[in-house]
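Notes from the pairing session

We agreed to fold both candidates in a single pass and log them together. This is the raw record for the first candidate, unedited. Please don't reformat it; downstream parsing expects exactly this layout.

Candidate A
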Amino acid sequence: MKYTREEMVNSVPQTGFFGHPKGLGILFFVEFWERFSYYGMRAILVYYMYDKVVNGGLGINQTTASSIASMYGALIFMTGIIGGWLADRVLGSRRSLMYGAVLIMAGHVAMSLPFGVPSFLASMFLIIIGSGLMKPNISNVVGGLYHKNDDRMDAGFVIFYMSVNMGALVSPFIVGALQKNYNYHIGFLAAAIGMALALMAYIIFQKRSLGLVGSVPSHPLSAQEKARYTKMISIVLILLVAIIVITLNMGILTFNTFSIVVTVLGVLLPILYFLTMYRSNDVTSTERSRLLAYIPLFIAGVMFWSIQEQGANVLSIFAKEQTQLDLNKVFGVDFTVPAAWFQSVNPIFIVLLAPFISAMWTKLGKYNPSTPLKFALGLFFAGISFLIMIIPAMTSQGELYNPMWLVLSFFLCVIGELCLSPTGSSVSVKLAPEAFSSQMLSLWFLTNASAQAINAQLVKLVEPMGYTNYFGFIGGMALVLFVILLTLNKWVSRKMEGIH
């Protein structure tokens, strides 16, 4: 049975969580633990890959490890296409979300097993597919709690975004300490336990809190479509397995060639995805206009996430190799900071600043900045966060960086993130064609996928360019796009056709 958006929204208690729909509370809790598991694992992942085998690592080259981390992040967001399509056409957002949580938990369990590369690859596969099912759909359910023109929606996404960053804040401390005091696999096991808590909470509370939201596909497959897609998917899977087997035997399939494939996919997929929606007979002329407005916002999102996501590989390695971690030499405090703890700096600032940003958007009312202006601000602060790292390089004279420069870089990027990221999720819901409600959020998550796919190549420039030139190059690109988006502000607003 298909429900209208009004029926689904009306089935949810519209108060019960700080003035927001009751269902936002359970989704907040689930996302907290899912992000705890992901960011806890990610805090030590790049170190695990390039650490020596004798230390419990995989012994992979450092540049390759950084590129793999980007590929992994890209594929997690690319599979959001699959998750969004399955939700819209087959499962509904709620079931997709739950199946994804099960696969993610299994992936973290696999990572906790001391079986080297095979266990690592199995874990990557399970988490990539599981995240594709869960990530776009939990955000789609959040959006489904509100009417499209509900003024609380932007603020609701900011609150939801806090759950992401509260999980990301706590997990590096816990997982990093377990890895330091025991080993990598105990740290990964903590991530698995976090995901199990999220799954249990969702199963227990989802029916009473979420009503009808996401319970059925928004655009279910017909009998003919089911037969056609089953045949098509079977052929694609057989061809994919054959290609992998053949290229492995020929020695063609290496990490380097795979990274190039991922980068090409990162560029092509959003283009194909956008064209599919734009040319669909189920999309109205007004919805097409809104899709055109989405293009510059999408490009801005890619540039922003390219910088933000390098906090987990380029800046993570920079923290360990180029930053003074012995606080006795900086502040006279007898303590050495674990490099993994820098992964908590970003979420610390988000948790501190998110309530103020959310309240500011609400307080501004009709003076609230337009969506493209918020995106432009996000680009500006992201670009400055990299450019600021040039200053200590010119004065350090070969010494290790003061850790406060790295903290300042994360702080500036966080301001940009709070301007752009929650707004991106919210505007994706608002601009989504009715027939592609879940898939539009998948397209938004492709901004991150494309960014990390491109990063898989960009991070290879760090060694030949050096950190100073690299930070200047990437930061400068962001500021150029900032200026371009400012000039397009009125055009984008006009094309959004009444959505703000």
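Candidate B (folded immediately after A)
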Amino acid sequence: MTAQRRSTALIGDDNSVVVGGKKLTWRTLHKLPQLPSPAAVLVDNGADALAAVRHHAVHGTELLVATSSRVDLAMREELGESGFAVVIANGDEHSVTPARLKRVEESGRVWLLTSGSTGRPKRIGHTLESLTTVRGKQQPRTWLVPYSPGTYAWWQVITISLTQADQGLVVIEPSELETWPRIAAEHGVTAASGTPTFWRQTIFRDSEALSKVPLEQITLGGEPVDQAILDQLAELFPGARISWIYASSEVGASIVVHDGKAGFPKAWLDRDPDPESERPVLSVDGDELVIASPHHGAGLEGAHRTGDRVEFVDDRVLITGRLDTDEINVGGSKVSAGLVRNVLMAHPAVAWARVFARKAPLVGRMVAAEVVLNPDLGPVTDADLVQWCTNRLPDYGVPRRIRFLAEIPQKETLKSDV
């Protein structure tokens, strides 16, 4: 996975790009002035982020792109001390803080910041080649881009448009998230990728507007994917292909499931490597998912411990959450917060749920939950949900405290804290 300079002949140069309400192409995006290299380009809008990507694709600049809000002052100092010039992009204008350390440029290198969900964000090295995991010829599509610039999921959609013909983009800014179905319908979006929280929030706000978007491909990722959200999307879009993807900055896109079911088949575990298909090797050590992926970040060869917890249910392997937060010990009996969450969200009136441990006398910990209800499905009390869970879970797994929220919480990464 050696970083290298790209050709200036970009297959996707003539693909449409809708950003800030303007319809452009990759070729007609505003051009950034020649960037120093390495450069950390901090942006506040999708147009500047795409301009930075095209600059990298043409010139091979060693690049990290992220939103200004994700990179605090301490991290900017850290980047400068690691050899990055920090560029604040603002259309045709930009400010540059020179790097504090001079080092040899890794031409063609792309750096991603991890989500920081388990601590301070880390830098993971890639190239456009390693980020481009969709290589086969695709049918013409227009893709929605709701993700925060610079995240792995954002790069996955961007590289499709950059390296494939007839793959347009409609970029959604944070201020447009509440009304994105109207924008998507206006511009003929046929493919959209988002987290389960993103899809739940859209259904919760306005499922009627969502149903008017002519979606043919729906993709979920970034969080554990449960059966309830897959079924809701299948009901809204019976003709669409619905896929979920397990991907991370460290191992790339490693699991892709198209059968409409949560989890992946047990038969996928411990298969022999297949260099031709670039199929990752999946395994489980204890309760932890382990992946050896050809799409890994720089220096991350071999088996990678993901930190994600799995449960075996019938012939499926379900990814339930992070190892350090998913398991709740109730008086010596252990239950998966993710599985309890799935039970809650299988209730017809529940639009979203978060399950966590809470201190309790005698048993040390008990199961608690926060829930957002669908207002169109009648009144539901905490007692109703406790009874629902009692019929489906062992006694120690039933939530004993349930708090109702008015809205589904969502972070800049389109994830909720689950």
